[in-house]
Amino acid sequence: MQNSTARTVHASTLGNLRIEASTTGITRVVRTDDAATAPTAENSCALDYLVTAIVEIDGYLAGTRQEFTVPMDRSAMSAFDRQVLETLEATTGYGDTTTYGALTRALGRGPEDARKVGGALSRNPLLILIPCHRVLGAGGALTGYAGGLPAKRALLDLESADLLLPLAI
């Protein structure tokens, strides 16, 4: 399991984000209700990753960045979760969407594994950086996002002004 040695709660246009880093990359980006805090670090390399992630996330949310270059530390992920998230990154670029079923097929698995794929997406510790917001339900329904459906909608709208999906209730 990774050891986060730099952390902050960053106030972004999407709300406050808890961002953590290890000496090998970003370990966590999640929405939080906690108050914004200044970065703290036990290691200058981890602090550099943290600062880079903040700059890149802010650029993405401002509409000036479409890709992330900050290294991500995936060492705490299971092999299956890592495979699902890496397949998502490889098959679904900025402005694109996919479905749980299509992602399951891209992994070479049958429809019976779609819930397992959804579970892996729900455990994504690197929101925004790994774009699980681009995964839709069958028929394009806006369902499931650890950051909340309004945040998912905002991220999809940011990536495509023409994409207006209804929230599933």
Describe the 3D structure.
It is a single chain. With 169 residues, this protein is α+β, with helices and mostly antiparallel strands. The protein contains five helices and six strands; from the N terminus they run ββββααβααβα. Helix 2 (79-91) packs across helix 4. The longest helix is centred in the first third of the chain and has 18 residues, at 44-61. It is globular, with a radius of gyration of 16 Å.
Q: How large a portion of the residues is in β-strands, by DSSP E?
A: 15-25%
Q: How many extended strands? A: 6
The average pLDDT score comes to 91
The helix tally amounts to 5
Helix-strand topology string: EEEEHHEHHEH
With strands numbered from the N-terminus, the spatial order across the biggest sheet is: 3-2-1-4
What structural class do the secondary elements suggest?
alpha+beta
- Uncertain spans: none
Helix content percent band:
25-40%
Largest sheet geometry? 4 strands, antiparallel
CA-based shape: globular
Rg over CA atoms: 16 Å
Distance between the termini: 36 Å
